[in-house]
Write a structure and sequence with these properties.
It contains eleven helices and nine strands. It is α/β, with parallel strands linked by helices and about 240 residues long. The strands form two sheets. Strands 3-2-1-4-5-9-8 form a seven-stranded mixed sheet, with helices on both faces. The chain has a two-stranded antiparallel sheet with strand order 6-7. α6 links the parallel β4 (about 95-100) and β5. The longest helix has 14 residues, at about 15-25. It is globular, with a radius of gyration of 18 Å. The relative contact order is 0.16.
């Protein structure tokens, strides 16, 4: 299963770099206007640090082992709490809230989503990245050569991970839960093809990587490829209060 230190090393490899390159491309946050960004479940604070050079960023991460390995090249505020911190944040405090690969590991995901929607300003954005069931099935069956694990996923058996039991949930759950305050603005896939090849050597070649990144960016907007991508990225816009 690996350790958090193994995971920290993995995100520095091409497969981790691809994930973050895709996020930054899809969010497309301009650097010319300083805004407030909340990164809830910031992990190693890679995304928080990326945006902190141009924006005011609050990174929320309760896992000490993760934040002790965080990236600290830029100036952001680290909050070492979990969901309780959200309850202390005033309404309409942030222009953008990020919640990336977090809700699979919590029991109260509906409450967390409602708190995140509350703290975003009217017409502000909530970015949610989640594991995609069909992408995980593809990964288990093809890359992992493990059809039994793939069948377990199709039968809705939760996976074990270094962060505990991982429960994959649907895009429809997000849309329904947020429907009173937010509307779906954009949706993308992340890594439809990259994670299906076991040829790791080629992934370190820059020419191949750039070609694959261009392909993934193109495929990320096509519905058929979103359905089999390893992750889905949904961006919600908060309704205007007026």
């Amino acid at each position: 299963m690996g350790t958090i230190k193994d995971y920290r090393n993995m995100v520095e490899q091409p497969w981790g770099k691809m994930f973050y390159d895709m996020i930054y491309e899809q969010l497309n946050i301009p650097s010319d206007k300083r805004i407030r960004i909340l990164d809830f479940g910031a992990g190693f604070c890679i995304t928080a640090d990326h945006y902190a050079g141009d924006h005011e960023v609050v990174a929320v991460e309760p896992n000490e082992e993760m934040y002790s390995l965080r990236v600290e090249e830029s100036d952001y505020t680290l909050i070492t709490q979990g969901p309780d911190y959200l309850k202390t944040v005033p309404d309409n405090s942030f222009d953008i809230a990020l919640c990336h690969n977090v809700l699979e590991y919590v029991e109260n995901r509906e409450e967390i989503l409602k708190q995140l929607a509350r703290v975003v300003k009217p017409e502000g954005l909530l970015s949610v990245i989640k594991h995609n069931l069909f992408g995980r099935v593809m990964g288990s069956a093809v890359l992992g050569d493990d059809p039994k694990a793939a069948m377990d996923l199709l039968n809705e058996v939760s996976e074990d991970s270094m962060f505990g039991s991982r429960s994959v949930y649907s895009n429809e759950f997000l849309i329904d839960t947020l429907s009173h305050e937010m509307i779906l603005s954009d949706s993308y896939g992340i890594r439809a093809f990259f994670g299906l090849s076991s040829n790791n050597e080629i992934k370190y070649k820059n020419e191949w990587y750039q070609s694959m990144l261009a392909l993934e960016i193109k495929a990320s907007t096509i519905d058929e490829f979103k359905k089999i991508a390893f992750f889905n990225h949904l961006i919600f816009k908060k309704k205007d209060a007026t």
